[in-house]
Amino acid sequence: MTVSRVVELEGHIIDSGMMQACFGIVMDLGGAFDVEEFSVGRSKTEESYCRMTVSADSEATLRSIVHELHQHGANPTDPKDAELTPAPGDREVPEGFYSTTNHPTEIRFEGEWLAVERIEMDCAVVVHPGDDSSNDGSWAETKVLNAVEAGDLVVTGETGIRVHPPERPRERRAFGFMQGGVSAERPSESTIARIASELQEVKDEGGKVLVVTGPAVIHTGAREALAELVREGYVDMLSAGNGFAVHDIERDRYGTSLGMDTETLDHPRKGHKHHIYTISEVIRAGGIRAAVDEGLVGSGVMYECVENDVDYVLAGSIRDDGPLPDTITDAIEAQNALREQAHEADMVMMLSTLLHSVAVGNCLPSTTRVVCVDINPATVTQLLDRGSAQAVGMVTDVGTFLPTLADYVLTRS
Amino acid sequence: MTVSRVVELEGHIIDSGMMQACFGIVMDLGGAFDVEEFSVGRSKTEESYCRMTVSADSEATLRSIVHELHQHGANPTDPKDAELTPAPGDREVPEGFYSTTNHPTEIRFEGEWLAVERIEMDCAVVVHPGDDSSNDGSWAETKVLNAVEAGDLVVTGETGIRVHPPERPRERRAFGFMQGGVSAERPSESTIARIASELQEVKDEGGKVLVVTGPAVIHTGAREALAELVREGYVDMLSAGNGFAVHDIERDRYGTSLGMDTETLDHPRKGHKHHIYTISEVIRAGGIRAAVDEGLVGSGVMYECVENDVDYVLAGSIRDDGPLPDTITDAIEAQNALREQAHEADMVMMLSTLLHSVAVGNCLPSTTRVVCVDINPATVTQLLDRGSAQAVGMVTDVGTFLPTLADYVLTRS
Amino acid sequence: MTVSRVVELEGHIIDSGMMQACFGIVMDLGGAFDVEEFSVGRSKTEESYCRMTVSADSEATLRSIVHELHQHGANPTDPKDAELTPAPGDREVPEGFYSTTNHPTEIRFEGEWLAVERIEMDCAVVVHPGDDSSNDGSWAETKVLNAVEAGDLVVTGETGIRVHPPERPRERRAFGFMQGGVSAERPSESTIARIASELQEVKDEGGKVLVVTGPAVIHTGAREALAELVREGYVDMLSAGNGFAVHDIERDRYGTSLGMDTETLDHPRKGHKHHIYTISEVIRAGGIRAAVDEGLVGSGVMYECVENDVDYVLAGSIRDDGPLPDTITDAIEAQNALREQAHEADMVMMLSTLLHSVAVGNCLPSTTRVVCVDINPATVTQLLDRGSAQAVGMVTDVGTFLPTLADYVLTRS
Amino acid sequence: MTVSRVVELEGHIIDSGMMQACFGIVMDLGGAFDVEEFSVGRSKTEESYCRMTVSADSEATLRSIVHELHQHGANPTDPKDAELTPAPGDREVPEGFYSTTNHPTEIRFEGEWLAVERIEMDCAVVVHPGDDSSNDGSWAETKVLNAVEAGDLVVTGETGIRVHPPERPRERRAFGFMQGGVSAERPSESTIARIASELQEVKDEGGKVLVVTGPAVIHTGAREALAELVREGYVDMLSAGNGFAVHDIERDRYGTSLGMDTETLDHPRKGHKHHIYTISEVIRAGGIRAAVDEGLVGSGVMYECVENDVDYVLAGSIRDDGPLPDTITDAIEAQNALREQAHEADMVMMLSTLLHSVAVGNCLPSTTRVVCVDINPATVTQLLDRGSAQAVGMVTDVGTFLPTLADYVLTRS
Predict the structure, then answer these.
(1) Which of A357, A400, B338, B384 has the fewest CB neighbours in a 10 Å radius?
(2) Where is the Arginine dihydrolase ArgZ/ArgE-like C-terminal first subdomain domain (chains A, B, C, D) (predicted)?
(3) Among candidates D237, D249, D242, which has minimal Cα distance to D299?
(4) pTM for the whole thing?
């Protein structure tokens, strides 16, 4: 028995790799294709169009082929409305629910395509019908599994869903300029200069910048550079863990980070206790803002965040000492706080932290600009390998990266 | 002004490096020493003894020298009772509180030395006085900062505290055999054989084994080997994250891990959704145990834990999908659960997870045997760099390590 | 001024990524394209065809576009003979010489296409005309720069050259199964099983296997497994450095590798001198073969190579101790020896050595099967990033990889 | 049967770890010790002294204990002359020859101690007796195995040899300040500032600086910074490979390095051929100096070396393209050239190259100051793990390191 279905692709489907991906999917999954129409964009501004019949020897195979195809931007020619199934309970998605990609997505509801709001991968899509006589006011959004409520109309199956993977930009842009894999052997200063002008551009356009940062920023002595970027308005939101804030404040209180003086490189003995003393002091003060207000903390990244009303989220983890009163210890609550930041951000800079960067990256649509900096190439590879359209990865030392970036942004521009 | 204090060291203080460390501390911190008595163990079983006067030009310098010295096992000759200060509030330690090392520690209370229970680094020490007429029943324990309660008698200052860093074993033992830094260029099979016999020895002595594991164990196809070790009684406790359990059950339900078939190496398209489907199925079932009872899950590590009553802790994190109902989402609660496991363990095997290993490692006294396996040498270095006396680090592929270990333990022994 | 040229592509040009690459090249280099004919293969066995006019605003730009296009398989529709220029001197190539890719290449000479022999990247192509009245007996080959001789007819310019980048296999094959980047988080045993059956297949077909190996094979205790594969006929050629042979023989003579006993894990003091003693003993014997013949060496990889007439090349380097008399100390001579091995090999296994693997990889056509094993993901990435069509990379511990591979090949198959 | 021998140690034997090491050796090798005299330095400037009888149950065991002890600075109390045996042939050392450490060493010859010249590890020691009636003019030097000539008087056995491992500096110095292992999480700018002042100090004292560099310096865009340091006289000698010189000149000729424009980050198509064109151009010119003289090369590191008479050694390897006429293709000849540089250097900076750094490091005495910079922590660990007394390792990006270093040295000082 052979079953088949007609799908179509349009746009810059060749140079974006969509055609290649789709042909590969069909072959890998054991199906066959028969191209019925193919008109290629004759120039770089013209779009191409392809319509083909995909066939397989079982309905199950065909369904998984079509599922994959449409995740890569090929859509059935005979659109039907998406299938909606009420969630059976809180945090319970119906069987066969559609799990999102991080690409812009539309849902067909009562004959019209609704753009899904707050797009993010591995979520359910919930449709909120509008007024009953029309679908004016109907809208759709993503929900993570634990946010689904009983009765939510969840999209199930494969029909009535359109996904728009990012196309290759027609012109070369600053972002996305790192082609060909992650490597430490790239021009460092020139890349930083590029990131600096991109950062400037985002700010000039009124965009919001989210910095996701790990404690290595403090240990490597880049704290002052980051504090300066916060103070000068280049950072709108900050995501970090308890340890980042602790070492940042430890540096203010004791001149050390993880017990090492980041200027003299001395290891004052007893220094390894400084972070614990710091935590107990901030706890006694009642939190970071209170510690700043009391004059207990007078410099650093957290200080500048407080002074400049930069929204910060400190997400707790099981390896935390303390933690500080500001640290959100519940993982779901913390993830939701990160999610809000991620959805507001126009540009995200991930600095030497795998855990927080993965957490934030999970919430990002593929259209957000991402800069990822780490000294471990495997970390950069893992973070960039999430289908972001506009991403720059840099294998470098954050301890020299941030001072150089601050220099380009604040002095040389 | 010169101030001074007399300290003494005893034991195998030369070959354990204690003398060297202590002389170095005095010099580094700008003090001077005057050795008054030094009797060296004339043979490898005899202990040595050193008494010296340490001097510095300020009381503050002297205090920090003495603080460091006693953390390395040098103790004042004129012991006084430890100073105790009531905690001013819940989660508030008094100023100047003593922050622990991970070495066995004693506190002098009413003229007698109390061994501190549940030793763990970066904690406060709380003394519980016994009956008021004697100190019968007096005892001392560590408390992490967030567990301190108002009124707890917390040790402050430097007096009346004795620390016992681990000595170099007199005979060569299996553990601690990896000298000279972490390297991938070590004999792999022979090292695994050694770990296998150590594991066997711990079990033969009735000891408890805690496995701390990351999802790489599943992705690399080592799941069956670990499941077998659980089934055969070599694992008493398991610490992992939400992702580990998800991928373990995904493998059972869909044959994949992170979407890849770990046997055929196929990437069934749609496979990248399997983990989300898995999560929603376990949520619907009400948890892992319920899913096993329902017959939804019939193999794997989590299955064997349920079937063999192996205590497991799944600690949540901000990057989790779902999470599963079993996952403890509050970091403090999760850390306390790990702490219980850590204090019960006689041997800890850390398998390809940095976050959970650091969390567990933080709770371990320096006397617990630790095996740490990761493919990233920096991870192994970081985990072993915590002063454990009996530790083996191995830079290897957990996907071949576990099958080989299981083979040695279950077949070849 | 606009200049233009017509090029055509044929084959599985979509799913192999050729179309995508070519469109990208034109856009990146500032040209424009106008697709004149495009017939897409209607099914997975049908080939596609595309003819397009490429235009640019200068002859120089157009030339570099066309140069790039044809390196990706797009060829001018109006083939002319290649331009040939005599080399002005020994080791001197004429200006504008054509530098090869590692893909199968043809040169148009007197109206006919000659397949270039001994294809290898970054070489000149030298045409040897046959009999003067016809081009019977004409042939073409690659020459590295230092092998070019005065008067050699070297291909210059861009015309008359056809390159055939590898196409995506129509069916899934064992090789090339690692898609999506290099990662340690892949199923280890299943991958090794796949490599084992591939190795078996090559041998069954009478193919030749070249093992390129570093000293880590000895240090990690995998020596016996590799020796067994040599003895059982699975290795036809071996490439290594002086250090590999030294440590292999050190193990035989002293039971150690780099001074560590690879079985007991002891570090016999004085062990760090064993390699120097080993070298001096082999020098005294007159070489490895002589040492085997004398009975000085009775086991190990080099021993099995000698006993089983496996061709080995020991290439010298500046970090060598000794070196052994067998080591080729001149880099050009050593490279030529490797080149012979590379061109004869049907399958190459690169085991934990970057230097030798790069050297051999430089000499390989893109059609040779390659297996690359290293514990450092950056090494695997670098080695696979050379355009091989049939390559498997594995981030694992060679000390467990080789015993497991030998087990699959010799026992389980 | 018990055999024994008396040895003594003197100096700062406790805080340098010598006592600890020696006690450990005796225990590890199954011997026993009996301390007869031990006087400990009563203050940090006083030296200590220890005399002990070491015993073992066989002469062989005792010998290997004593061998190890004296490599760690413990010397027999009853010094005898060293045993000298003539080398039986060229490149043939006599059996039982003494193989050197990299520490300062003395040989007892005719009752007097001769300092061994050109100390370097894994060498033979050859004594050149002076005038026959006295030993005026007698001297000793190291020879690598392949430099030994028939008849050379080679030191054999264990007697009459004194080794002086480096002691812990009495005061804290810039160098050697990185204690506690290699880590990327160290203060980057402060460490660079320290290295800058150390470099300045060496130059102020008239010392010689050897830079050992890999091509990553060019790829990461740090070429101009290094060229400037050469031009300003901070580099006296340069060691590199063929590839470094090729990419440095490629940047001059084509604006690219490995085909990427290090300023604009463009990948001019055809760029991947630039290095081959560069090589052929330099070959045509007859070498680098000729290319500079002809005006073919007008900037960069090699250009500055030529213009400023900085001695450079380009050591060939099997992965070289070309090579350039300047490249020494014979490994022994190249190693000897490196050896001359190494022995002349007062400070060595190893920049992002493992092969050349190991080669140079092999030739260095333990007293030379070493700075090692690499982005891979395993490389830094491996390079520092060679017993250098005065070494700084830094895990950072050489592309930001060198500009920052040049800034500190040339501008901020």
Answers:
(1) B384
(2) 104-192
(3) D249
(4) 0.91
The whole-angstrom distance between residue D372's C-alpha and the CA centroid of its chain comes to 11
Residues 6+ apart with CB under 8 A from C210: C235, C236, C237, C238, C239, C341, C342, C344, C345, C347, C348, C349, C360
- Please determine, for residue A163, whether its predicted confidence score (pLDDT) is greater than 90: no
- DSSP H or E stretch at residue B358: helix B354-362
Residue C277 makes CB contacts below 8 A (sequence gap 6+) with C253, C254, D99
Closest of C351, C344, C359, C403 to residue C375, by C-alpha:
C351
Using an 8 Å Cβ cutoff, are D260 and D266 in contact? yes
The minimal CB distance from C172 to the residues A28, A34, A43 is found for A28
pLDDT for B178: 46
Chain D: nearest CA to B383, how far in angstroms? Answer: 13
The residue count of chain A comes to 413
Q: Which residue has the tokens 């060569």?
A: B172
- CA atoms of B74 and B25, how far apart (whole Å): 11
Q: Show the DSSP H helices in C287-330 as ranges.
A: 288-293, 301-307
* H helix runs in C164-222, sequence order: 188-204, 216-219
Partner-chain contact B400 C220, CB within 8 Å: no
Contacts of C215 in chain B (CB under 8 A): 185
Chain-chain contact of C27 with A378 (C-beta, under 8 angstroms): no
Most C-contacting residue of D90, D158, D264, D318 (CB-CB within 10 A), to test interface: D318
Q: Across the interface, which of B88, B322, B331 has its CB nearest the CB of A329?
A: B331
Structure tokens at A38: 């193919």
Mutate to test the interface with D, among B4, B6, B9, B14 (most CBs of D within 10 A): B14
CA–CA separation, B110 and B113 (whole Å): 8
Q: Which residue has the higher pLDDT, A384 or B323?
A: B323
D332: tokens are 């022994």
Tokens representing B129?
A: 């006085």
Instruction: From A31, A86, A68, A42, select the one nearest A161 (Cα to Cα).
Output: A68
Is the ipTM higher than 0.95? The answer is no
- Nearest-by-CA chain B residue for A89: B284
Q: Are A246 and A217 in contact (CB under 8 A)?
A: no
Size of interface B-C (CB pairs under 8 A): 120
Instruction: Work out the percent of chain D whose per-residue pLDDT is above 70.
Output: 92
Question: For chain C (length 413 residues), average pLDDT per consecutive 10?
Answer: 87 76 79 78 75 88 84 81 94 91 93 95 94 77 95 92 74 48 82 94 96 96 97 98 97 86 72 87 96 97 98 97 96 97 97 96 93 92 76 93 96 77
Contact A270 B64 (CB under 8 A): yes
Are the C-beta atoms of residues B340 and B355 closer than 8 Å to each other?
no
Chains near C, with 3+ CB pairs < 8 A? Answer: A, B, D
Tell which of D400, D404, D407 to mutate to test the A interface (max A CBs under 10 Å): D400
Which helix (H) or strand (E) segment is C335 a member of? helix C331-344
User: Mind listing the pLDDT tens digit for each residue in D357-398?
Assistant: 999 999 999 989 999 999 998 899 888 877 666 788 999 999
Residues in chain C with CB shorter than 8 Å from the CB of D356 are 318
Residue by residue, DSSP assigns C120-155 as -TT-EEEEE--SSSS-TT-EEEEE-GGG--TT-EEE
Disruptive mutation site among A26, A40, A46, A68 for chain C (greatest number of C CBs within 10 Å) = A40
- Ramachandran angles phi, psi of B57, nearest 5°: -95, 10
**In terms of Cα–Cα distance, which of B127, B157, B131 is closest to B141?**
B127
Contact B317 A277 (CB under 8 A): no
Q: pLDDT-based confidence at D267, cuts 50/70/90?
A: low
Contacts of B19 in chain D (CB under 8 A): 14-15, 19-20
